Amino acid sequence: MSEVLLNVRNLRVTYPGDDGDFRAVRNVSFSLGRERLGIVGESGSGKSTTGRAIMGLVQRPGRIEADELTLFDKQGGKTDLRAMSERGFRALRGQRLAMVLQDPKYSLDPVMRVGDQIAETHRAHLRSSKAEAYKASLDMLNAVHIRDPERVYGMYPHQVSGGMGQRIMIAMMLIAGPDILIADEPTSALDVTVQTQVLAIMDDLVQRRGMGLILISHNLHLVSSFCDRVLVMYAGQVVETCEAGKLHEATHPYTRGLLAALPQLGNRRHELPQLQRDPAWAADL
Amino acid sequence: MPSWIAGVAKGAASIVVTLLGLLAITFFMGRMLPIDPVISIVGEQADKATYDMVYHRLGLDKTLLTQFLLYMRDMLSGEFGEALFTGNKVSVDLARVFPATIELASFAIAIGIGVGVPLGILAAVYRGTALDHIARFVGLLGYSSPTFWLGLMGLIVFYAALGLVAGPGRIDVAYIDMFEPQTGLLLLDAAMQGEWEVFGNVFRHIVLPGSILGYASMAYISRMTRSFMLEQLGQEYIIAARVKGMSRWRVVRRHALRNILVQLVTVIALAYAFLLEGAVLTETVFAWPGFGRYLTSGLLAGDMNAVLACVLIIGLIFVGLNLLADLLYRLLDPRTR
Ligand SMILES: Nc1ncnc2c1ncn2[C@@H]1O[C@H](COP(=O)(O)OP(=O)(O)OP(=O)(O)O)[C@@H](O)[C@H]1O
Ligand SMILES: [Mg+2]
Questions:
Q1: Cα atoms in the Cβ-side hemisphere of radius 13 Å centred on B336
Q2: Which residues of A touch B258 (CB under 8 A)?
């Protein structure tokens, strides 16, 4: 891990509710370089919320607090995201920070051609002409391995398959060349071959352009083989951070439980062991 | 686009079926009502010979089926018979009163859309703020006040007390000869002929009843716009558009608004139909020589020809508006193509 792109210290996200506040993210800290950082954790552990908080897009009445939330640029300049105005965030989103949302089916505008949705990002940030944006969008569709981009450009979201939708989403988020991409389960709707392709596209961007990637996933196997480092989240907290290659050496009982629960080829067990949760894991660290 | 053509064909078929239904209903209404059509023509004192002659001329001695077929032929060719209470052919009367109502309802819907849609959008975007509450209150008021009461109050305040607007009717007598109505929509006629003085007078007449009718539809349209908008603003694709770095208003305009357009079209068509309905009361209060008042007078005079023709036309308008909304729906929503 080389220079730092993003520094997060004690990030907290709270949703006020009728019976007290709900702390969806509790004191999450990490820093991201030009690398692939994985976040795993069970459903509801706060993975997406962490991503959204970095984008400044936690829906009201949710609150974001942090001791530090800093974005670094190539020249070493710092941007404090906590003090960022909506207008300031707008300039960052898409261009420096981007996020592929979890569900491509609902993340594309149903009444706008998918190509126009990709071009829209380009036009908003690069102040390009219609023709330039069109051209760039076709290139981007090509880059995410979509065959016949001219035809796909004119399709509506209900006409594309789940896997195409996910790649279109990725194209839409990458077209303005962000420094950091948060990919929220970007491969969950894809079959294994397409999944490999999509991961390769993102890997290429990290290697070639020095992009920082945060890959959110349920899939422990995938994260450990693809990422450099892994954060394990449980009930809103990071319970363990480790090198991806050394995940099998993880010490936290929750991570060990997850590892033990993975089905393994060639090792026939009649029943997958169930994860026994310990209430102590949810206590504030 | 074969499914598109199928949609149009289905629409056309539904129009034919509805039309047949309407004709059957109006026909049997005409037979079943305790009004003897012969007596309303010849009068109570007519002798038997005259009565029989008219009875025969009206075709009442033929079988019911023949009568219905004849009735259908007449109605479909716009031959609605004579309106006894005006002495004109019903078709001639309708050509005169219809534009008056259309003009009033269109004025009102323009207000309903022009104010209601932006208000609904603002209320949704600024949900829970003072602006939202004010918009809701204004809407609720429009919802719950009867239009005829608002009409009377409006006349008392703006016409009688303040003299800001003109009184009942569509135009002052002094202006009638200053231009030649062509479409029957007086604002349009006056504007096309460059008669701005006439235009001003017509405007001063239409502004009060038009605004009062428009208020009711504005309340409806803004409430629906707000709820459609709220639904869209909660969708993931809105967040996705924000992630791309678009401003809140740009997201509203380019994404959310386009998505609610589909539903809004239906609401606006409905609002327009309500307006034509609401015009009956408003026209009475404002002595507006339109369709609603014509229907009321026809009913009070027991004039079957006029009433049946009106019922038929109202039915046709509803079907037509529905079909139009359906067509626009197909045009606006790629998923239905
Ligand atoms: N707008 C909101 N209001 C209230 N609570 C919310 C809101 N959004 C998320 N939460 C809660 O925050 C917690 C974390 O949600 P989040 O979506 O971050 O989970 P996740 O780890 O991404 O789960 P998944 O793997 O299912 O996507 C959940 O318990 C969720 O119910
Ligand atoms: Mg999630």
A1: 14
A2: 109, 111-112
Q: Determine, yes or no, domain membership for A258.
A: yes
Tally the domains of chain A.
Answer: 1
* B chain contacts of residue A176, beta-carbon cutoff 8 Å: 245
Indicate the pairing of strand A180-184 with strand A97-100.
Answer: parallel
Domains detected in chain B:
3-76 (no CATH), 95-336 (1.10.3720.10)
In chain B, how many H helices and how many E strands?
15, 0
What are the pLDDT digits (tens) for B89-103? Answer: 988 999 999 999 999
Average pLDDT over residues B177-195: 85
The side-by-side arrangement of strands in the sheet containing A97-100 is: A97-100, A180-184, A212-217, A36-41, A229-234, A237-243
Task: Write out pLDDT tens, residues B206-236.
Answer: 999 999 999 989 999 999 999 999 999 999 9
Residue A244's domain comprises: 1-90+229-285
Expressed in angstroms and rounded, the spacing between residue A50 Cα and the centre of ligand 1 is: 9
Residue A260 lies in a domain: yes
Chain A residue closest to B252 (CA)? A109
Nearest CA in chain B to A169: B240
State the closest ligand 1 atom to the C-alpha of A59, by its place in the atom list counted from 1: 1
The interface predicted TM-score (ipTM) is 0.87
Closest by Cβ to A101, choosing from B236, B333, B335:
B236
